[in-house]
Design goal:
Length: 187
């Protein structure tokens, strides 16, 4: 069987663009372990619902909940905003609704990355009217210099520069989500 080489590569070339490693697999996994411990500690005695934002957050959510030691549930939203572009369209569309009832529950929204904050604002506005008992947000990445909306990210994996990144769930025109490390567009 042919094998896909998914080791850390020095660079990934996509057309005329070059991506270089920003966060390697072991660094990502170590930070997720810490986040998992912190969240588990803070939710002792509760049964939080982790709500992943598809597609980008699927890898992060699966690795995160492996590090959660309290009982928990999982659900997903699906949003679309970027299309095949590297910059946000400025519009968010709900493609898949939640299947769980959030009323009275402790909700933890799980995002891959917060850029302008538009998607997060959209999700918060969607969930709040359903009266969760509490709502917090965990994002693996945040681009603090790109934030345009007033959103509070309670748990942050890494602050990164306002540059386009791929890998570990994050796509470029739907590809490269399967990379184990995160790569940044070099200029
Ligand atoms: P926001 O709504 O501007 O905060 O953008 C958030 C969404 O855009 C994320 O959930 C990602 O799906 C996507 N996104 C933002 N920045 C990047 C990036 O650098 N690479 C890939 N996707 C990104
Ligand atoms: Mg996302």
């Amino acid at each position: 069987m042919p094998e896909i080489n998914n080791e850390v590569q020095d660079r990934i070339i996509i057309g005329t663009e070059v991506f270089v490693p920003l966060l390697k697999e072991d660094v990502i996994q170590e930070r997720i372990k810490q986040l998992g411990q912190q969240i588990s500690e803070e939710y002792k005695g509760k049964v939080p619902v982790f709500i992943g934002v598809l597609n980008g957050a699927f890898l992060f959510l699966s690795d995160l909940i492996k590090n959660i030691t309290v009982d928990c549930e999982v659900d997903f939203f699906k949003l679309s905003s970027y299309g095949d572009e590297k910059i946000s369209s400025g519009r968010v569309k709900l493609i898949k609704e939640l299947s769980c009832n959030v009323e009275g529950r402790d909700i933890i929204i799980v995002e891959d990355i917060v850029d302008s904050g538009l998607s997060m604002k959209f999700i918060e506005d969607l969930i709040s009217p359903h009266n969760p008992s509490s709502m917090k947000v965990v994002s693996l990445l945040i681009k603090p210099n790109s934030l345009r909306y007033n959103v509070k990210i309670d748990y942050i994996g890494f602050n990164i520069p306002s540059k386009f990144v791929i890998g570990y769930g994050l796509d470029y025109a739907q590809k490269y989500r399967n990379l184990r490390s995160i790569y940044v567009l070099s200029e």
